[in-house]
């Protein structure tokens, strides 16, 4: 179940919990790659409650989780409690679902929400800046936007850099190494309307692509598009 369109006005977050001995590498990775990995909160090792949602457990609050071992996806439980380890450091990373209410308020349609689908996500050929043992490509989310509204979408989202900010591209998907816009790597294929063009934002699923390449021994993430919904209002991440 995607959380797109499910919590208007509330900030949503990507989640990754990684062993403490990898946490510095990951923190450095987020610092070097703030566009796809803007950090909203970091929990201490073993901690399970975030200041962003004090009545929720990070092991159970997302609709679905992913369990990773040496870069391989081994399970997708609805509850990560049985897989939890006390050495895990949890990072909550900004999510573009947070700026979707602002887009709607500006008159920009959300095709994936209207079609009751998850947003489309693609692995690009843009390599993130490595950090320690972590390396891998940037993932982007894609929304079909009427060509006449692309500039508005850019301006609206540029004001929210903590949830990925302005797009990284629009138009020809081949500029990002995407060969088939109708075959996303994560999420659902979304049907465009006449006059729509694809617009791409850096995506917080990037850490999952990094896990596949870097192969740490263990990690827990949310399932793509099934986010950790916080109590923070979306406007808290708007600047200017």
TrEMBL record:
Protein keywords: Lyase
InterPro entries, alphabetized: D-Glu_cyclase, Putative_hydro-lyase, UPF0317
Gene3D superfamilies: PSTPO5379-like, PSTPO5379-like domain
Enzyme Commission identifier(s): 4.2.1.-
The keyword Lipid biosynthesis appears for this protein: no
PANTHER family in alphabetical order: D-GLUTAMATE CYCLASE, MITOCHONDRIAL (PTHR32022:SF10)
HAMAP family hit by this protein: Hydro_lyase (MF_01830)
Family: Belongs to the D-glutamate cyclase family.
Stated name of the protein: Putative hydro-lyase FXN61_14025
Source species of the chain: Lentzea indica
